[in-house]
Design brief:
The protein is mainly alpha-helical. 64% of the residues lie in helices and 0% in strands. The chain is built from five helices and no strands. Helix 1 runs parallel beside helix 4 and helix 4 runs antiparallel to helix 5. The longest helix is centred in the first third of the chain and has 29 residues. It is elongated and about 55 Å long. The N and C termini lie far apart (36 Å).
């Protein structure tokens, strides 16, 4: 984009903001990789009560569904909103950061739970509750933006 291009011509997104969004997306890759690694550990984890995954091959799908649903990113929600498979691409900077922190936090909870010997159900519940808190905070910001706060 040259210096003559206006923000109206780019949908209101300045070059600085475009670079900022790209940087957030790039940083998010590391957090998603950490989440993938944590889910792999969880898929192999047998808790002190002897509970192990019945379908370790579905661990990633199950855990990401738990994390993404409160943010409106599960399959049914995307279909209802007619969003692409990569619905996260419709998120602005604030929304991406909230999702990124939720993903990193989920990874940290999984690792902490495995290290501490929590029951599998407890780890899943803590991830779910934590993610809902982030999504609720994001919903509050969205409401403020829309003048509903």
């Amino acid at each position: 984009m040259n210096a003559v291009t206006t923000t109206a011509q780019t949908g209101g997104i300045t070059p600085y903001r475009q670079r900022h969004i790209a940087a957030i997306r790039e940083a998010g890759k590391a957090d998603r990789r950490a989440l993938t690694d944590a889910i792999q550990v969880f898929a192999e984890y047998t808790d002190p009560a002897g509970n192990s995954p019945s379908r370790p091959d579905l661990a990633y799908v199950s855990m990401t569904r738990t994390i993404y649903a409160p943010f409106g990113l599960n399959v049914k929600q995307r279909d209802a909103k007619e969003l692409a498979l990569e619905a996260r691409n419709t998120f602005d900077e604030t929304e991406l950061v909230f999702l990124q922190v939720a993903e990193r936090s989920a990874a940290e909870i999984i690792w902490a739970g495995v290290d501490a010997g929590w029951l599998r159900v407890e780890i899943k519940q803590r991830v779910k509750e934590n993610t809902k808190l982030f999504a609720a905070q994001l919903a509050g910001i969205r409401n403020m933006r829309a003048g509903r706060a």
